[in-house]
Amino acid sequence: MARIMARIISRLCFIQRLPAASMLAVSLLxxxxxxxxxxxxxxxTSDTTNRSTGLASSTNTxxxxxxxxxxxxxxxxTPESFVVDKQAWTLDAAPGQIISTLNFKLYTTSDKSFIVxxxxxxLETAFSHxxxxxxxxxxxxxxxxxxxLATRGQWERQTQRFMGDSAGTYLQIQKGGFTYDGxxxxxxxxxxxxxxxxxxEGWHVYTQSTxxxxxxxxxxxxxxxxxxxxxxxxxxVVTPTFFPWANxxxxxxxxxxxxxxxxxxxxxxxxxxxxxxxxxxSDLALxxxxxxxxxxxxxxxxxxxxxxxxxxxxxxxAASGRLVPTIRKALGxxxxxxxxxxxxxxxxxxxxxxxxxxxxxxxxxxFILVVVQTGTRQDxxxxxxxxxxxxxxxxxxMTKSGQGPDTAAREVVQASPAR
Length: 419
Fold this sequence. Notes:
Elements: H1 2-15, H2 20-25, H3 27-30, E1 48-49, E2 56-57, E3 85-91, E4 94-100, E5 104-108, H4 113-130, E6 144-149, H5 152-163, H6 167-171, E7 176-180, E8 183-187, H7 191-210, H8 217-226, E9 230-233, E10 236-242, H9 248-259, H10 266-269, H11 274-280, H12 282-301, H13 308-320, H14 323-331, H15 333-342, H16 348-353, H17 357-372, H18 377-382, E11 411-414
Parallel strand pairs: 5-6, 6-8, 7-11
Antiparallel strand pairs: 1-2, 3-4, 4-5, 7-8, 9-10
Helix pairs in contact: 4-7, 7-8, 8-12, 9-12, 9-17, 11-12, 12-13, 12-17, 14-15
């Protein structure tokens, strides 16, 4: 009997390896018998061959694999997400810290938690805006340096250390800061304005440390003001959203200059510097910044956006080092050398947009009148273009935000060495 049972059990183990049709023939024999565990049978696959018929069996007895669980969501961003390193630092015995992010090294003596906690994320978001809003631009090879000091006194002493005999020019700045040789020196001028000036001067730090050719002053300053506009989103207080139109200070100064009939023609804007204007008439200097802000918007979306491609080409050429060779090819070695040394002497509007400042001025002034007309203030608040037919890229709808921005006047000087 034991011998018979052994044969039956052996047969049952073999049956497990047979197709279903063969197993059915002996199912009655195995009825009521409980066999001990057998060695695992190979899983049936579509290419299993029936030993008796030589035909492929389509039966699959293996269990379907369970799908892999979805990956966990990334952790939410926090202000510390943008910080690579922090080190203690002192300035004239005042405690401070050096905060390093992916692209910046910030030296600060501020003890305001909102500024210190949020400036790393602000800087990195601003850099993303710099390097994408007018086409792809290169990353810096080294961290960009910004000094953000707590008081005007600290700023004045540091200005004297940095600028030596030239410090007097910069100490005339009544409010704000400056950038020189790829390094910004700023001080706290109020909650919103401190972030706005950081965005403005951050652009100068970026171009001075990364661009291979310099832009002319009026375009460099225009782009810096273009990069200022932002809003904090109450649904996401970690990072701001940048809207180039959301700039009440520049809008207000532009509207004031227009109503007081103090708008300058492009022929004057393209040969002026803010340093010259600040020394003569601070209101005119504010009008200058407002008008170069409007000029970038005009080149980006004025006249149906026909200038936008050439604006991007000009900025890209400066970043990559193609600007001076383009000048040399069109106007000769002398013009290229003068521009490389002085950032002037060449009509880049004619070279890149095929129109002189005088030829562009009528359309530019008409553009300004549309921007400042009654009813556009809400568009500026929303960060939305006030132009009836804007360029394709428009700002998303307004999100919840705090009260209106601080529109106190701010004077900014930017200088760079000859390249």
